[in-house]
TrEMBL record:
Gene3D superfamilies for this protein: CorA soluble domain-like (3.30.460.20), Magnesium transport protein CorA, transmembrane region (1.20.58.340)
Sorted UniProt keywords: Cell membrane, Membrane, Transmembrane, Transmembrane helix, Transport
Membrane topology: Multi-pass membrane protein
Protein's recorded name: Magnesium and cobalt transport protein CorA
CDD domains linked: MtCorA-like
Highest classification ranks of the organism: Bacteria, Bacillati, Actinomycetota, Actinomycetes, Kitasatosporales
Naturally occurring in which organism (per UniProt): Streptomyces kunmingensis
Cellular localisation: Cell membrane
Keyword Cell membrane: yes
InterPro entries given in the database record: CorA_cytoplasmic_dom (IPR045861), CorA_TM1_TM2 (IPR045863), MgTranspt_CorA/ZnTranspt_ZntB (IPR002523)
Pfam families in the record: CorA
Transmembrane segments: 318-337, 349-369
Keyword Transmembrane: yes
Predominant place of localization: membrane
Length: 375
């Protein structure tokens, strides 16, 4: 029988033995700072361990083992355990306590997964990509615009385990929002999963709005009078960062649709309606990213066209001046040859006449090029 099954047998010897085993393993770990009420002695990766009953947070300093024992004994409420980048050793006892599938545990510990939703028995495992806009004073060809992370969520009948990877994506605001709406939190662990997914998708829209400001700035610079001098590396950098955002948003569409339409034991029908709203917001984000990608392509093509036009303008100017300079070069070249019999060679006014002819021809050629827009 699994560890989860043992724990459900309130007062059962095997269940109690399993809890005592985990408790002994926890006691063998180095104790961490317990001054914060949300800290747990299971390891430094534990950020929060809270029990909820009827949507209300229980007060007290229970550790994870005691919280799970109380919830399963009363067959009411659930435990929300939050971790940040746990190691395999730190997660091993938690995986045993909640009977988590080894493949899901491996994904949660090592991260770098595509957004997905998988079912392992009665446990739902979801992977969400988080994004964050990186503030910068000036966009350069090497600026980091979008930073990504991951949130893994294990959802069971009486527990939620969140594993966060990355420097952002704190779930504190999500927890506070849920605790402010106990009627929603009372719907169980699936309500937590929805709140997390909804917060992640809202962050997508926030980052998209910030990226749009960068795109607008580059677009205005490209179509300025001296737009051909814009560094194309900035446009390529925006496209690379937009691709990073697309990798987070696009693969999440199918998992959210599955949560909204596919039956899961731990996701009641009333929660699936909320996932349909998340799916709509996600679709909007995906459409905006696709539009930005097309816009950046157009901006890049316009910039390359401007560079080509500017180069053609320069070549026309160079060609025009070369034609003007060719007139005195040809005249001086002819009369610089060492022949005795040349027209007007010994005439007193031959030299000024030659200079005058060269000047008149040069002025005429210059006016012709000027009139045609070459100069």
């Amino acid at each position: 029988m699994s560890m989860a099954g043992n724990l459900r047998k309130v007062g059962g010897l095997r269940g109690v033995g399993g809890l005592r085993k985990v408790a002994r393993l926890a006691r063998r770990r180095p104790r961490v700072d317990l001054s914060h009420p949300s800290r747990s002695p299971l390891g430094t990766a534990v950020v929060n361990c809270v029990t909820y009953r009827d949507g209300v947070r229980e007060r007290g300093g229970r550790d994870l083992v005691e919280a799970v024992r109380a919830v399963r004994k009363a067959d009411d409420g659930f435990v929300w355990l939050g971790l940040h980048e746990p190691s395999e050793l730190e997660f091993a006892d938690i995986a045993e306590l909640f009977d988590l599938h080894p493949l899901a545990v491996e994904d949660a510990v090592h991260a770098h997964q595509r957004p997905k939703v998988e079912r392992y028995g009665q446990t739902l495992f979801a992977v969400l990509k988080t994004v964050c806009y990186v503030e910068h004073t000036e966009l350069t060809a090497t600026s980091e615009v979008v930073d990504t992370g991951e949130i893994m969520v294990f959802v069971g009948r009486d527990f939620v385990i969140t594993v966060r990877h990355g420097r952002h994506g704190s779930l504190g605001p999500v927890r506070e929002g849920l605790e402010a709406a106990p009627e929603q939190l009372a719907k169980g662990p699936a309500a937590v999963l929805h709140a997390i997914a909804d917060g992640v998708v809202d962050d997508y829209l926030t980052v998209i709005d910030a990226v749009q400001a960068d795109i607008d700035a580059v677009e205005a610079e490209v179509f300025a009078p001296d737009g051909s001098r814009t560094d194309p590396g900035r446009i390529y950098q925006l496209k690379r960062e937009l691709l990073e955002l697309k990798r987070a948003v696009a693969p999440l569409a199918r998992p959210v649709q599955e949560l909204a339409g596919r039956p899961f034991p731990v996701v009641p029908p009333e929660i699936q309606a909320y996932f349909r709203d998340v799916s709509d917001h996600l679709l909007r984000a995906a459409e905006q990213i696709a539009a930005f990608d097309e816009l950046l392509n157009s901006i890049l093509q316009a910039h390359l066209a401007q560079v080509t036009v500017a180069q053609n303008e320069d070549m026309r100017k160079i060609t025009a001046w070369a034609a003007i300079v060719a007139v005195p070069t040809m005249g001086c070249g002819i009369y610089g040859m060492n022949f005795d019999h040349m027209p007007e060679l010994h005439w007193r006014f031959g030299y000024p006449l030659m200079l005058s002819v060269i000047a008149v021809i040069c002025v005429g050629v210059y006016r012709g090029f000027k009139r045609n827009g070459w100069l």
